Structures are given as C-alpha cells and as structure tokens.
Amino acid sequence: MLDRVAAPEQQPGPRRYASRAAFLRRRTPAALTALAAAWAATALAHLAHADLVLPALVVAATASLLRPGGGLLDRLVIAAGAVAGAALVGGLLFSVWPWGLHPVPVAGLAFTLLVAAAWALRRKPTLPTRVYGTDLAVAGAGLAAWLTTAWPTATRPLVERLGYFAGNDTGDRLRQFSLFDAVRQLDGYAFLDPGHTKQILVAGMATNYPNGAHFLYALADSFRMNGAAPGNGVAEAHRYYSLLLLGYGAFVLAAVWAARWVAGHRARGWRGALALSAIGAFLATGVMTTSVWYGFDSQVLGLFFTVLAIALLVRYPDRPVEQTVLVGLALIGVAFTYPLYAPALALGAAATMWAVRARLRRRLLPVAVTCAAVVPLVLVPIVVPRLAGDFNASSHLLLWGPIIRAPRRVLAAATAVFVLYLAVSRARRSPTQRLMGIQVAAAAVVALGLWVYQRSEIGESSYYLEKLLYAWLVTVLIGLGGAGALISRSRLPLPRAARDKADKLGTRGRWAARGTVAVAAALAGVLLAGGISFGKPEFRDNRPAPDNTWGKVWADGLIVSPAQSELMAMQRRKLLGNGKFTMVVLRASRTAWQNALVTMQAAVLNHQLGTLEKYVADMPLVASEKQDARKALDPMYYVAQNWDENLEVYSRTSPVPLQIVSFDPVVGVRLVRAAAQNPCHCVKIVQIGGGKS
Prior knowledge:
The chain is mainly α. The protein folds into 3 domains: 2-121, no CATH class; 135-163 and 248-486, no CATH class; 564-687. The chain is 64% helix and 3% strand. The protein has 31 helices and 5 strands. It has helices at residues 2-6, 20-47, 53-65, 72-94, 103-121, 135-154, 162-165, 172-186, 205-208, 212-224, 233-263, 269-285, 290-293, 297-314, 320-337, 342-355, 357-360, 364-388, 393-396, 408-424, 431-458, 463-479, 496-505, 507-528, 550-555, 564-572, 592-605, 609-618, 636-641, 643-653, 665-676, and strands at 539-540, 543-544, 582-585, 658-662, 683-687. It has a 3-stranded parallel β-sheet with strand order 3-4-5. A two-stranded antiparallel ribbon has the order 1-2. Helix 11 (233-263) runs antiparallel to helix 12 (269-285). It is globular. It starts with a helix and ends in a 6-residue tail after the last strand.
C-alpha cells in the first residue's frame, strides 16, 4: 500500500546512477557520438554549399533541449530568440578569434555547446508535437508582414529595387547598411575595432550606434554566402535588404505569438482568433510598417527581443533558472540591438522578480548567479562603445529626427481597453495578467519620463519619445491577446440548417462549424484593425489617403526614392558598386539633398561612406547663406546647399581620382570645363541623358 501511494508522488527527473563513473560510462559515449555527428553534418552542409540550413538546425536542436512551451510553435519561437541572443554574446568571441563569422566554426561551436548542455543537464532532446489552431493566426501575421513589406521589390526586376533600398529622404538606411557592411568586412563588431572602419563608416558610427542588429544580419549573410566574402556592394545591399524584411516579419510573428502566450487559454476559440488577427493585421499593415522604409532596422530587432522578454517575464517562474537565462538572453538582445528599450525592460524585470519573490526562494541562489552573469553582458554593448567614442546620452535623447508620430489615439484606446480588460474580466485574478500590467506600466513610466525630460530641456517632445511610444503600443498590444474575454461567452447562434448538418456529421461537423466561426472572427479582426484597403491606393502629404493602409501604399510602390530612374540608369551603365569614388548631379527638378543622398548611396555601395565624409570635409566649400546647423544630420548637408558650385570647385581642385555622374546637360558642360583645369587630370565627368562623356 505504501509503495502504491508513494509512487505517484515521485517527481520526474534524470535517472540516478550508482556512481559518477556509472553516469560517465552511460552518457559520455552518446554525447561524443552526437558531437561527432553534429560536426560531420556541419562539414557536409558546407561542402554542399548549404550552410543556410545550419541556423535552422541549431534552432531546432535548442528547442529540443528547452522545456518552456507546450506547443511546437511556442518552443521554436523561444528557441529562435535564445539562439539570436546567444549569437550576440558569441559575437564578442567571433570578433577576435581567427575564423570570424565563417559558418563552420560558428555552427560547430553552437552544436558543441548544445551537446554539452544536454550532457550536463541530462536532458534527452524532445520536441512537442502539439499544434494549436491559433498557430495559423501567429504564423499568418508574420507571413503577411513579410509579404506586405517585400511586395514592391519581390515583384520588380533587380535593377528597380535600388529606389526602395533608401525609399525615404533621410539617409538612415544608407548609414544602417554601411554599419552592416563594416561588420561584414571586419567579421565582427565594429565597436571593438573602430580604427578599421574609417573608410566604410561616418565618424562615430561604429561606437555611437548599437551594432547588434547589423551583426545578426551579417552573421546570417555569412551563412547565406557559405562563408565567402561579401563581394559587390550592390549585391550585398540587396541581400541586406532581404534580411531586414525577414526581420520585420519575425518581429510581427513574435509579437502576435507573445500576445497568445500571455493570454493563455483566453486566446482560444473564435475570441482568440478575433484578438490575435486584429493585432497581427495592425502590425502587418499599419503605421509600424513605416520603420521598414524609414530605415529603423535596429529598432525592429530591438522590438523583436523586447516582445520575447515581455512574454517570458509574465509567464515566470515555472522553471526559474531556465526562464531567467531566457529572459537574460532577450535582455542582452535588446541591449545589443536597441538599448533605448532596455530601461523599461529592466524596470519590468525587477518589478516582476519582486512580485514573485516567494516562488523564487527555493532557487534563489542559481537565479541570483544567473542574474549576476547576465547584467555585465547587458552592459557590455552599452558601456564599451561609449568608452571608445564620444557618445553623450543626455543630449542625444533630445535630438530631432524624421519619424512618423506614434498614433496617440490608438495608443490611448489600446491602453484603455487593456485597463478595462484587467478591471472587469476574470483576468484580474490571473497572476500572469497582473504581471503583464507591470510590463505595460513600466513602458508607460519610461516613455512619460522621457517626455518630461524633453519638455523641460527643449520645450517640446522629439524623435526618441516616438520610439518609446511605439514600444509602449506594442507592449499594450501583447497584453490585449486575451481581450476577447470581454465579449460574452454565450454561444453564437447558428442557423437551424447549419446546426442540423453539424449534428449529422458528428465531431467532424462540430469542428468544421467551430473552424468556420474562427475564420469569420479572424476576418472581422483584420477589418477591425483596418488591415484592408478600399479603393485606389493614394499617398498624400506623407500619409495614406482615407481607407488606405500604410502597408498598401508601400506595397503598391507609392513610397520610393525620387531618384529611382537615375539609380536605375547608373546601375545599367555599371556605375554603382564599381569601386570608383563617385559623386552625382541629378536633373534640375531634383532637390539638392537628393543629389547628396544618391551620392551617399553610390558611396555605400563602394564601401566608401567614411571616405566620402572625409573627402568632403577636406575640400574647398562654397558656403550657403542661412545654413541651419541643427539640420546638419549628415556631413553632406552643407555641400548639398550649393551642390553644382561645390562640384565645380571639386572638379578643379580634387587631388584624388573622382568620377562625377551628371544627368543635367548644362551642369555637365560646366563640370567638363572645370575638370579640364585640374592639375592632376584625375576627375572624370560621365554624362547620362545628354552631353558627352
């Protein structure tokens, strides 16, 4: 009797061995076999030029060793975030070891660590097979986001994609790509070796801007290229662009998954389909998509890690040590990619750990050790670059920058619905939902704190407040995954004929009826979020017309560089990415700043943006009246004020080889005359669309 009673109370765990030697005899050979097989698979994939499959295998192997998450998609999303966070930490090693970002040693090290973890934890690799109906909403949102943002370039020839690479007039995408290029060329973090990036990057970019997103994209590009050099700048730019589009899709998928993860059982059925589809539609087609063409590449991956960290925090601490490691990796991801979001997460994490302190007491020591290891790694990408550069955070937070304002009414309404959801539904009794309230409060407190600081210093809010408001909005949306619970739980009435038919079909008929209702609810959620455009797409005053979405006007090609035709003409003449130092004069109808932007685009495709900045700074300059130093966001700004006149000066005095591409016949003639006076005769004028070469 005693044995029969005691048996069910035994806790599952690793098999006990009589001695340590017995454990080694049983487990070590299997681990060594697995390690040899992993390295063999890595080598074979490289020989077959299929290195791109290795990251997927690493994610799958990681998922098989994790235990949080009862569904297959849950486990894979958590594993993907963990692998990405670990890769950012590993980048500190990859930047100094002799193999750089080559796929074989990187993947081999990852597999080695996974085998060692399985051996040390005595875990058998297993993957859950459970698939939920709402997996379709989660995966569908990520796919829709990727399709929406990729559509303009996916449906156009390669030469036409150049106008979408830097579709807005800020130059941010060009600087982002140059940082990716620097990491790719260095095979490691630029902030660890800023001296070797002067030709590629503008001054201070290596140390003053977070390298994490660009490192992850560079690592992915190395696997895609099977360890080969990045090669031609134009092809490299296209690969980078395709990666950042995948990054946006991954962010949306992670955000909708986080909303479902936080909601738990409240995201089931048609109510869950309604809420999740509305969240996904807003993120896939709404104002958040502007981050793609505004060049906010680091912000997108920062939000990806942010939503993962929030999701893991609110379902904490089922497995305290393991979940602390996962949250730590997500926090590391935020610190390396977009540290602006780190304070809110740190505040939310501290409040969460205090709220669940009673449940952490049994594992307090290992949790404390894990936190002690995570904190320095979070500080590395924040502190080390600042020691090497001249970054001033207090003044930087006051800067102006081009950005679409976060929709205040949407933010206020979403926050109000979330508060209502917690106040009047059964969710208020859920510890998970209360912890979600802590995350929303932390995001709001940090954003409002920056608003107060900006108002006190410069009398108005500016660029970085909008970034925090977007993070606040995404956090609230995650909390609304279970808001369908606000709808009455009474059964939806079905027509008698439909009920009779479902009864005749039995279980299959009932499932079909539920699926039909869920699909209808999902479509209603898409409409509720404004995810569908009606009528002809229009884009006026930098806004979509009524009944249009941001995603639709982008997908229809209405947001594109004004100099797209000139970029296409240069590419057809092989004047881009040819290694020749180039400046460009557009047609008279173009603005001066567009001349500078196309010149910058030619420079980044030649890996020469830093060289261009230094060249411009050292050359004679024709000054312009009423220049506003506050708008000098780029070293090309002052030159662009009197572009033609400055290029004439450069043509006469340039001591280094210079190629000037002119689309304006009148200016082209003047430049030819000026170049003839150059003492070293090292300036070449290339006329396109009229004039002589």
